Structure formats: structure tokens, C-alpha cells
Amino acid sequence: MNITVTPEQAASLLGCHSTTILRRITSGKIQATLTTNIRNRPEYRIPLEEFGLDAQHRWYMQQGEKAEATATLEAASAASKAGKRPPGRKELDAYTVEQRGQIAFWMDTVAEWREFRRGSGKAEELDRDFVERLKARHPGLQISKATLYRKWQAVRTGDWDSLVENRGKARKGQNSIHPAVWEVFCGIYLQQTKLSVERSMELTEEWAMQNAVNALPLPSAATFQRAVREKIPPETLCFTREGPREWWTLYSPYIARRYGNMVSNQMWVGDTYTLDIFTVAESGQVHRMYLSAWVDARSGIFTGWSLSGESKSQNSVNALRDGCVRQGTMPLDNLYTDNGREFLTFDFGGRGHRAKAVLANGEKPFQPLTIMQRMEVEMTNAIPKNSRAKVVERSFKALKDRVMRLFPTFTGGSPAEQPEQLKAILKSGRKVPTDAEARDTLDKLIQYDLNYSKYDGPVVKDKGKRKIDVYNEYSVREKVPADPAVLRLMLMRSTRPLKVGRAGVVTVINGVPLKFWNADVRHYMDRRVYIRYDPADLSEVRLYDAETDAYLMTVERSPLEADYGEDPEVLKELLKLQRQTQRAVRNEARALQARGEDIDPVALALDIAARNAAGPVAKKNIKQTQILYDREAGQAPSLPVAVGDPGDLDIAQMNRNYLKWMEGADDDGEEI
Fold this sequence. Notes:
alpha+beta, SH3 type barrels, five-stranded mixed sheet, 19 strands
């Protein structure tokens, strides 16, 4: 077993200063290895064989049994770093920062104890004395001789779990909710009706009273709320309570476009934009014009545009013609647009999803060669409400912030952006530009200001260049260096805390934005993490919890990227990954909802209402009132008499007595 010593220990053996040892190491006179100690600090380790026999003898005489402990500890640590740990044992970086501190404390304590034990006296008395000293230094520490022996055994065998304090954590992540109750609760709670936790508990309790009495009483609402947070992933919660469409918007992985492999004019992206300024038409009407524009996907410049008082397909055709004239070329491969009618018209790009095979009169619709077919350019339509697929949306934002705000009649895209001076300007009419003035000014600003602004697209190597310069470059390709060598864990670089999102883990390394994603990273959605990575090999990174510093998983580079005009087979595989993710979430949701599928929440609610109405509390609270009329019988009900049998009453005699009491006179004073 190889034994190594620190420079300080070597200095004590040779009778010199530790700086002398360090100087000999740097000059190569003493061979040493630079390692990392348990506190993740660099430390030189010198093999004991580097010194003479006398120095080695002194070492064994000084250290005795501690030498064996040190060697055992180094072997266990080296095996852990190399990934060779005993079966069932975790590596050190799988523990939290607090747990690693506990491991280091006990390793130092055990080493100190073994050193103290070589003093004069009986071993039992020395152990008792050491325990008392340790209690005095750490008043809150629960320590005994038996504890020392157990920790010593754990250090010898590399059993880090035995060095970690786990009291109070045996049931972490568990609760007192009965499994059957939890299944029914999930079936009721995970619905788009969005019942509250308290209401779902009421219905679950009603089910338990009929089917699982042994699971009663239910835990508190706080217990169920905590179980919802800890056991149900956010994406599953969104899928079941908000719906698949909201899940797709917030949590589904998406395919990012790669622009580095494109050339200028390969793809033009078109859209129509309502200007954020007011102008005066020839008729004198104050209005907002429409801008139809085409943007080069590679460089982001406006290739062609057209301003008009209304949004129509002819405006898009005019903008396309303007682009071909300005740039002296047609788009090479593709035009990318939304599903608006200004593009999907029968003679421009075809009817698209609005096309009909047969008209109402039974005839086939007239379909000439479209402009796209004549230009031999393909048109691709974006998915509805998927604005991130069109770079023209970001170009319009730059147009608003850089150009539109220069005009005094700027109105913004929402009432919150509208300047206070706008009403006064429109009322006076002095500073409102005409359509012709706005058209001439915008032509110059777009062509010579916006297109000459700095490139802010996704290709990092072009950052800082002008958009027009990027456009003039024919082809730009991005290469990611790769090195198959795997560095040790301690030499990996770390990032700042990140958040797992729909795209997985997104970060910037050496100025290059990178995405890391796999099918399992969704389990850590919305969780604060950080990654450790090897700059020479960015094919995968190691994911760690930002709070506990515990290792979570290894994540590969995201495959969810595609070029414009990508091979359909490649897109098919990427879309398959999206569907697999959605299928996995759906299966998890169905598993949680399974128990509650055959349960009717309405019936359970009616059972609660019926039991409340018939219960003793409900009867006690009913106000007793006298019934004066029986609607079903159509007459006044028979009332109980105070004395005697109702059959013995003489109604006629009662009337005579009444008249006598009234002295036999009516209201007018006449005798009856």
C-alpha cells in the first residue's frame, strides 16, 4: 500500500521548512502529485519512498496505526474519484455540501482520536478522556466511545453514509396519506375543472367513508398541498388542470432553428405589420398604415417592403417584387410565412389548408400556376400562434424601437406604451406626417439605418457586425470543437445557477449558447440547477441541484434543432421525440387519474349535502314554523285541540257565543 505525505509532514521528517519542500517539488528534486483534498483544495502528496530509510522509519515510529488509517482513507477517496466504489456506495459528489462537511468532520475527528490514543495510559481511559474533550469543544454533539468505534469502521471501509447525520430524514418525502386515498384525490384534483385542494379532499373523504373507512381521518389540507408540490411534477399538473394546449405552450420541448449553415437569400421570412405611428391619408383621414416586408433569415436585413393603407395580398406581392429589385436576386429556396390570407391566396402561394377539392356547386376550384410555382420557390407556412418560428417578428420589434419611436405620432403597441402628448398632437394636426412623407422617410431609415445596425441574431460569431455585412458574406458555418478525452470531475468547469425549462438546460459557454436536453430532464422542470462541463467535450454535461449540490443526472446536447428546409426524415425523428415526451406525460397523468375515473364528483357532493340535511346538526338548526295552509290538500290542515275530542265541539254554539259577546250589533249599529 503506497503511503503519501504532505509537504508539512515531509518537512518535519527532514527537519526543514515546508517552503523548502515546495521549492524542491517545483524544481523536480522531489516527485509529488497535485491532488485535491476532501475540502476540494489543491494539495501536494509526496510518496514516502522519495525519502531515505531513516526518514521512512521515523514516519512509521511517529504515525504507527495512523499511517494505516491514512493509506486506507486515501485508497477509499481515490477509488471514489475513479468511480470504483463498493457496491451500493455513492460517490462523494452525490452528497450535499452539508453532508460532505459532516464526512470531513468525522474523518478529521477519527484521525485526531487515533493520534490521541497513542498517548500514555490505558486505551479505555484515553478514549473516555477524548470523548469528554470532544464534548467540551462541541457542546451540541452527541458522542460516545461506541460512536467513535462506528465512525472509525466507516472511515476504514469508505462507508460515507455512516458518517452522515440522517436523523429526522428517514421519512423525507413521505406523508400520512393512504395510497388509495391519494389515488382518488389525484383523480378528482387533476381535472380541468380545477377543483381546489380543500374541495377535492371533501369529495375524497366522501368516497373513503363508503369504500375505505380504515383510511379515515384524512390528513390536513397542508399535507395534501405539500404532497401535490412534491409528488406531482409541474408539467403534469399543467397538463391535467390547464390542458394539453397550455402544456404545449409552457412545457413542451421545442425545435430551435440553426442559422449558421444558411446562406444569404436562402430563406426570406414575410409578414404584415401595423405601423406604430399615425399618418394622414390623401383623403385627410388619420390612420395607421400597414407594412408588408420580407426579411432575410440569415442576416436579418429587410430585403423588400411595401407600405399601404390596407392589408391585402397585393401588398405582399409588391413587397416581394421590391425585394427582388433591391437585392438583384430572387429568394433561392424558400419563403416562410404565417397562415394569413395575404399569403395564402389562390394565385400567390395557394390556398394552403383552406383549399377545397370541390366547390359547393360541385365544380373543382380554379387554380392557376401560383407566383411561387413560377418563381420555382417553395412556400412554408408556420404553425399558428408560433411567433418564435419567424425572425420577422423580432425584426418588427427592432423596427418599432429603432425607427418608429422617432416619429412624434408614435402610439406604441399597447395603451401602456402610448405617450401622453399623442392626443394633443393628433388634435392639432401640425406634426402628423402624410402617407407620402412617412413612406419616403421609412424607405431611407429601413434601408440605410435599420439594415446597417448591429447584427443581433443567433449566430454568435457574427455578433458586433453590421447586418448588411453579414448579408454580403456568402456562407457562414459554425464548428463546435470536440475532444474525446474525459477530464476528472474536479477539473470540470461550473456555471451559475440555471433553471430547467422547456428547452432543457440553456446556457452560454465561451460565448456560444448551448442547449442540453433529454427525455428525463423534464422531471427537474422549473428546478434551480447548475452544470459542470468539460470545455473540450460539450457533448454532455453533469447536472447538479443548485440548493443541495447533489448530482442529478448527465444530460446530452439537445437534438431538438433543425435547419430551414431540413430533411423530412430528420424532422420526423425530432417530432417523434416531442410526441414521446407528451406521451410520457400523458401516461403519468392517466396513472394518477386512473382511480378517480369511475368516481362521480357530483354524486359525492350530493351525498355530502344529503347527509348534512339529515344530520342532527341540520335538524337542530331548522326553524319550527306553523303551517297555515296545506297546498297539496288545498285546505288548512287539522290542528290539535287543547282539551277534549274534536267530535264534541259545537261550532254553532261557538258562533252564538261570539255574537253575544259582540252585543248583537254590526258595524253600523243595526240589530242582527
